[in-house]
Amino acid sequence: xxxxxxxxxxxxxxxxxxxxxxxxxxxxxxxxxxxxxxxxxxxxxxxxxxxxxxxxxxxxxxxxxxxxxxxxxxxxxxxxxxxxxxxxxxxxxxxxxxxxxxxxxxxxxxxxxxxxxxxxxxxxxxxxxxxxxxxxxxxxxxxxxxxxxxxxxxxxxxxxxxxxxxxxxxxxxxxxxxxxxxxxxxxxxxxxxxxxxxxxxxxxxxxxxxxxxxxxxxxxxxxxxxxxxxxxxxxxxxxxxxxxxxxxxxxxxxxxxxxxxxxxxxxxxxxxxxxxxxxxxxxxxxxxxxxxxxxxxxxxxxxxxxxxx
Length: 309
Known about the structure:
There is one protein chain. The chain is α+β, with helices and mostly antiparallel strands. The chain has 3 domains: 3-58, Arc Repressor Mutant, subunit A, CATH 1.10.10.10; 64-256, BirA Bifunctional Protein, domain 2 (2-Layer Sandwich); 262-307, SH3 type barrels, CATH 2.30.30. It has helices at residues 3-14, 19-26, 30-42, 64-68, 86-95, 142-157, 219-223, 228-244, 249-256; strands at residues 46-50, 53-58, 76-83, 101-108, 126-132, 163-166, 170-173, 176-188, 191-201, 262-268, 271-281, 285-290, 293-297, 301-307. The strands form 3 sheets. The protein has a 7-stranded mixed sheet, with helices on both faces. The chain has a 5-stranded antiparallel sheet with strand order 13-12-11-10-14, with no helix packed on it. The chain has a two-stranded antiparallel ribbon with strand order 1-2. Helix 6 packs across helix 9. The relative contact order is 0.11.
């Protein structure tokens, strides 16, 4: 968000202010104040005028300015009403040298999940991709998927749902998928060049628009309509804080995991691994106790069979 407009919103969020007072405090003309206020109104902010001056009455439900207003972490928001893929757009921005950008959209027309599976992304969801440039070796990249899953669960819990993480990248409510994560990266063996963490949440989505045969749900179906702006802000804040404390990620993941303690079948490129999921180790390896010993699974599709004895 443009800095002066952000300053005006911060002032109006605390108390009404007249045009002359804003002009004096910000060191700009009264005409410039009026232009900034009009631009904010065009963005969806409801700013009234009365005897006390300008009054901020409401914030838009969604969008770049809405999410950036009050966001306490240094991410720039690029918002689209409709886009083919937020991950694809984030990769374009990575190629242009950008970082710390969140591509956010109301609708995706070509969303994809792991293994190039279709991800249905109708209006009302939260479809976003975070572009970062962490100074870590490529070996560490999977831990950012864990961090995104933890951040998503922490944000969703604020809505009252009991969410949990299914390894490697699904967020469930009960046994139904409400969110998924897809991480892409570019780099060399010793360092990551860029990382794109895509997160899709079925927020205010009509359950009838989702492929229910795949065991999915939406927040709207579970709790009623939710505040997408607040969820997005909480998610981005939690993800940023976890980036700063990588040693806490595995502990937090274990706290929210629903896979640990389950009997699982994991389909990997080398075949199936069946056993009890007992733990996870850095940077995201699932430990499965099988009849022949402990297996370390780095990648695969995980199916919960039944709770382990």
